[in-house]
Write a structure and sequence with these properties.
Elements lengths: L2 H15 L7 H11 L6 H8 L3 H13 L3 E4 L2 E4 L1 H6 L1 H4 L2 E6 L10 E7 L7 H10 L4 E8 L2 E4 L6 H4 L1 H10 L8 E7 L2 H16 L4
Antiparallel strand pairs: 1-2, 3-4, 4-7, 5-6, 5-7
Helix pairs in contact: 2-10, 3-4, 7-10
Length: 208
Amino acid sequence: MTARRGTDRLRARCEMAQGVGLRDTAIAVQLLYLLTSGPAGRRRLAARCGLSEMRVRLELEALREDGVVRLEKSGVHLTPRAITRIVPRLAAVKCQRVLPLQDLGLAGLLIGVHLVAEPLAPTWQYRDLAVRRGGTGLVLLRHHHGAWRFSHDLEPLEGWSPRDAGVISSGFSDPSEGDHVAIAAGPNRGVAGLALWAVVTEILALGI
């Protein structure tokens, strides 16, 4: 066994020991979203998720058993079933960005997604979900009356931090009234992504 494979296996075991089971909807939804832009290899998917290749392989094998991906030498492909049933629901995710924010009180690496969806639960419930998945915090923003605002009280982000408001506006351009941005923080990309996509899965009611 090579040193890299040994490290990868140890990393996968650590991920599972931290509460990530053999079937994790947040990881599955994140992988399916990444595949909506085209086929990709396991290594590339793992790098974009911040997870080990072994962890990604386990999820992909579960998705293959569900009939939504094909694992080929050329990469991982979505099946017609996924394109028909899942991709239209993932269209509510306009884009994903790593965000260099400074003033929102979130520690670690920050990842955000632009959602064309209306969260039904209070912000604190999504924040609790993100923390349960290992995240260090979560912020929900709503685009209202031409500005990004905190979703829980509609205070303009611009009044809190003009710099961060500029980062959000440039990173998530052309928003419509009622669009949301969910921003999760974590000690690394993998944990921040798990926290974020657990919240996205809940907001979009995606049961993969």
